[in-house]
Amino acid sequence: MSTTLQEAPVAKIGKKIQPKLVDQLKIVIVGHVDHGKSTFIGRLFYDTHSLPEGKYEQLVESCKRRGVPFEFANLMDSLQAERDQNITIDTAQIWFNTARRQVVIIDAPGHKEFLKNMITGAASAHAALLLIDANEGVQEQSRRHGYMLHLLGIKQIIVLVNKMDLKDYDQKVFQNIEKEYRAFLKQFGLEPKTFIPISAREGDNVANRSPKMPWFQGQTVLEAIDGFEPAKPSDDLPLRFPLQDIYRFDHRRILAGRIVSGTIKVGDKLVFAPGTKTSVVKSIERWNPAVAVSDEVKAGESVGITLTEQIFVERGQVAFHETNPVIQKRQFKARLFWMGRNPLRLKKKYKIKLTTQEVECEIKSIDKIIDASTLGEVAEKRDYLLKNDVAELTIQTRYPLAFDNSNRVVETGRFVIVDDREVSGGGIISGEEYPVRSQAAPKSDNISWSKAEITYNDRSIRNRHAGGVLWLTGLSGAGKSAIAHELEKELFARGMQCYSLDGDNLRFGLNSDLGFSPEDRSENIRRAAEVARLLADSGQIVITSFISPYRTDRTRVREIMKENDVKFFEIFVSCPVQICEERDPKGLYKKARAGEIAEFTGITAPYEQPETPEITVHTNKQSLAESVTQVLESVLPAIQVKAEGAESFEI
Q1: Which residues, listed in sequence order, are joined to residue 496 by a DSSP beta bridge?
Q2: What is the pLDDT of residues 391-446, one digit of tens each?
Q3: Which residues of 525-544 are buried (b: 16+ CB within 10 A; e: fewer)?
Q4: Which residues, at least 6 apart from 193, have a Cβ–Cβ distance to it below 8 Å?
Q5: Residues known to be catalytic
Q6: What is the four-CA torsion angle of 434, 438, 440, 445, rounded to 10 degrees?
Q7: Which of 177, 165, 254, 149 has its CA nearest to residue 211?
Q8: How far apart are CA 577 and CA 539, in angstroms?
Q9: What's the pLDDT tens digit per position in 197-229?
Q10: Which of 184, 417, 495, 609 has the most CB atoms in a 10 Å sphere around its CB?
């Protein structure tokens, strides 16, 4: 892909290269500690004349004054110190030019303690250079690095056998290392582009062919780098636009983020996941005023968009075209590399980060543990992972996650696991071909909301009260249904239009096609909210009793009501789970304890208490009558309408 790049001086060793920059390539450089990575990078910068002017001479003179030999590794140490202070070089990237392209180096520390940095560094790399010390040969960590690159989906690899000068440039030493390591990589389908014997310290085969190894007729490192295929544009892949944030400017809501694949045009209909809300792109907003305004943006660009319909969306949701949907599930298989200080354990709560999504998760099962240095399956069957273990496992998230198979869209198929605020593992969604299904039939452009001749206000005046929704939420056995039925009787006795919308009743008809998976439960709440909204629009006071354990679902209910100007009251029916279990009016707790009901709220599934409900009643401390009275005292003043000419409410 064509890129406008900054010109830079190039090689001052041998014939000077006149750059004809075709593209940009991001390369991650990995290697075991002390295998000469810093020396190699320093040599690359020196040989391509990419160092800040005078830096090399300055360090040589400094070494002379101190009476120590100059090391190319010192160049990188010095540059890193300046980088940390934000001087001399670009703080965002380290780059040099070859004859063909600009190369951006993503450095990844080599020893075990910094493998987590390697995941972060390699995440955006198009290719890799992997160093092996000729003096030490293939090490356990060398194998781990190869497997990690495989996990991260980096297929273009050059293996550099460094420090050949310490082995007198022995051809057999190089060939033995190549044979051993090539055979290891072949086990998981990784085929290096080439192996190159080098001495980073002496400059052999880095920028110039070495006369000390006449037996090697292959490319130099710089020539091999130019042989890498450029990064394939992601424009042709399905659209994936993870939302970073929502901003408000001039009464506009701007959805901001970075397009990881595909394109967005003004007029495109987008779907937002998790969920199925849709809207059309009204405008594209750019942060850089120097960039020309366009009605189309592509993968890699950070932009903002506005929508024609102001739907409720939030950070973490992923926008896509309805013809190429993401997968939305709470449970999936993955391949994970664990690097945490503490073991990874079943059932423990962790956080998974995928694009801008952050969701609580737990490991449901560890299906296979793999030794990354031998690729053999660990014979010991255990329900935990230790540092440097690789495993195939099943992950379950608290809320649905929007993702892709990693072989379809890499960026939405790769994730990290956070343990105690520390990135402790990384992996890819793999091991199962998840079906990519079209979303539920989207709302047709030919459908519009039918406005009745009799308005919401007309009904409110006739009824002398507004329609509204009283949303009772709480654990099973907390007393929601009892309160709902008493509220219905009290309101009916006052001559008010009211209806108790019970969850079980909905499942007999409208929601009879739904099961009890997390996805179906979420859809059950969505449908209930839409029904309640319609009834409220007809002038009814709708009293619902749903456990609705997740804040996300309840927030969506609130937004549905807000979008339609329906009065809404979230009523938290609070009661400790121990007391709810003692009551157990339907015998559900007993079944859950016996393992007959999976994912039962309060026992094997969580309940997230409302943070700012309009009303909270404590049924372990209050009688039914006291609870109902408390609700009525809060709700009635908000929904009653004065009779014409009256000075006070008349009901």
Answers
A1: none
A2: 889 999 888 899 998 878 888 888 889 998 888 888 888 756 555 544 444 455 56
A3: bbebbebbbebbbebbbbbb
A4: 156, 157, 158, 224, 227, 228
A5: 548
A6: 160
A7: 165
A8: 35
A9: 999 889 999 999 999 999 999 999 999 999 988
A10: 417
Helices 480-493 and 624-639: crossing angle in degrees, nearest 10, is 50
- The DSSP result for 168-237, as a single string, is TT-HHHHHHHHHHHHHHHHTTT---SEEEE-BTTTTBTTTB--TT-TT--S--HHHHHHTSPPPPPSTTS
Which DSSP letter does residue 261 get? B
* Spatial contact of 79 and 73, defined as CB atoms under 8 Å apart: no
Rounded to 10 degrees, what is the CA torsion of 616, 622, 628, 630? -50
Task: Give 320: exposed, middle or buried? Use CB within 10 Å, 0-12, 13-18, 19+.
Answer: buried
- Which residue type sits at 639? I
Token readout for 397 is 């998230």
- Residue whose tokens read 């075709």: 22
Rounded Cα distance, 339 and 389, in Å = 8
Nearest to 423 by CA among 354, 346, 328, 329: 354
For residue 513, report the phi and psi dihedrals to the nearest 5 degrees.
Answer: -85, -5
Neighbours of 196 (CB within 10 A): 26
Q: Report CA torsion sign: 183, 184, 187, 188.
A: negative
CA 257 to chain centre: 13
pTM over 0.70: no
